[in-house]
Each structure stands twice: as structure tokens, then as C-alpha cells.
Amino acid sequence: MDWIREENYAEEMRAKVEPYVAARKESGSFERVPGQRIYYEHFRAEAPKGVIVISHGFTESVQKFTESIYYMLRSGYEVWGFDHRGHGRSVRLNDNPYVVHVERFRDYVEDLHHLVETLVKPAAHELPLYLYCHSMGGCVGAKVIEQYPELFDKAVLSSPMLGLSFGNVPVHAVYIGASLMGIGERRKNSPTPVNEFDTTPHFETSCDSSECRYLYYLEKQKADRHLQTRSPSIQWGKEAVKACYQAISAEQTARIRIPVLLFQAENDTMVKNSAQDVFASRVRTCELVRVPGMKHELYMTDSDVLIPYWEKIFAFLQ
Description:
The chain is an alpha/beta fold. 38% of the residues lie in helices and 18% in strands.
């Protein structure tokens, strides 16, 4: 594998990775709900041995996974990525471009299912289908493989959002507070005012363990307004809390039939590792991999961690 290391990272990304990925990209959109456009990208591989579908995390976009897509393509997999509603170039159902809003978390699940059934499967020609998810996308992915247990052949959940972390504030208190605040149109607003994108680097408090990768994507965000979401709506928070409880329930986890590889970051402050432990204990086909010393975004770590991470994923898929 031609790994991209920390030395001259941005230069290598621009000179080698971006052209390689762009040359294999086709983009488009679909409307599962009339008038609500979901943006996707399809990356073709020569003689592919499988197809990977990416489900990204909260405030992210398929654009954040360029390096990951490069490794997937180089390993012989076709790739499909899309922007969840409220993110990137997909439909926004509120007026504030910096706030992610969704009416129902189930819409994320149904969008992913629709993409696979109407676009991915017809193009896959019986190749095995794999799901790669991060954070919020991991909750979406968990619910997809629970509700549609035969849709994918294997799934990778990287730091999945199976329980939200609010510090010392109990989750039920947050939910009650959101219910009281989010009445009528206020449900589309952020709990606190958000009217701009902060362009100042905050690597130390970020979710990343690799500074060069963090700064590379920050430059992408500065240049593209579609990538500048940064806060949840009140309704998103309520729906996310409910979705996490449902995803780790004994009733739903019992529906999973496919092999699952779950990565857990030791120093994760965004999601609850304890909820991931519950999920892994209830899914008999789940392998839990704990990554010591790392923060939430495991695909944004330095090479000494990132390379074994991807080697484990590709070994699992094969």
C-alpha cells in the first residue's frame, strides 16, 4: 500500500491522492423524498473485489474521506460515499447553514438503504457489499444492519455513536431540556446561537490525533461553505438520543447476522465507549478492537496507528 505519511502530508495529498481519487469519481444525486436531494459520489476501481459504502459522521461530508477512499481504491474496492441530509451538498431543512437539522433519525437510515438498493446494488454486479461507518454514521449503519440484516455482507463501525457523551450531564436531562426548548420552529435551531464558521485552528480540542490531517481538512472547510456545519439542531439532539438507545437494545441487536468490526478510541469524548461495549456484547458476530491513547476520529490519526487500523479493516473484509 502507498501510505500517506506525516512528512509533506498536504503536498502528497494534493499532488498524488486528490488526482488519483478525482480521476475515478462520478457524482450525482437522488431524491428518496421528492424535493429533498441527497448528493453522492461513486469511485470506480479496476477489477474490483468488493464495494464499500461510507456513512460519515456528524458535521462531516464524503469530502473528509479522500485519504480513506484512496486506500480503499488501492486495495481493490469500489467506493460509494454520500452526504447525509443536513450535511455537505445534500438537502438542508433549516435556514442556518452551520446547523445540522433532521426531523427524524430514521431518514438517515432510509436514505442509506435507498442508495444501496437503487444505485449501489445495480452497479455492483453481485460483488460483496461492505459498510464503513464513523461516529453518527455508525449509529446510522448499526440501525441499517439491524433493520435490513441482508443488505450488507460485513460492516465496520469506527467510533460509532451508540451513546452520546454530555460530560457530567445525564442524557435524560438533556433530552428533557431539548423537548422543552425545541417547540415549533425552534426545533430547527441550535441550542446556542451559531452564525459563523470558526476558521481558527483548535487541534488540541479537536477529535483528531493527527495535526497535519486536521489542518488539511480545515483548509478544505475554509474554502467550501458546504463543509462548514458545526452544531446540531435541538431536534437533531432529541432524535440522536433516541436512535442510540434503540441501536443498542437487545431486541434490535439480535437482528444482526453479518460480521461486524467495531473500533473504539480510548480517549473518545464525543461518544460513550460503554454503549459500544454493550452493543458488542449483544452482537454475537461483533469483534471489538480498542485503540489505546487515541481520540474520536481514528481515520485521522498518525501513521503508526492509522496503518494498522486500515490493515485490520482490509484483513477483516477479505
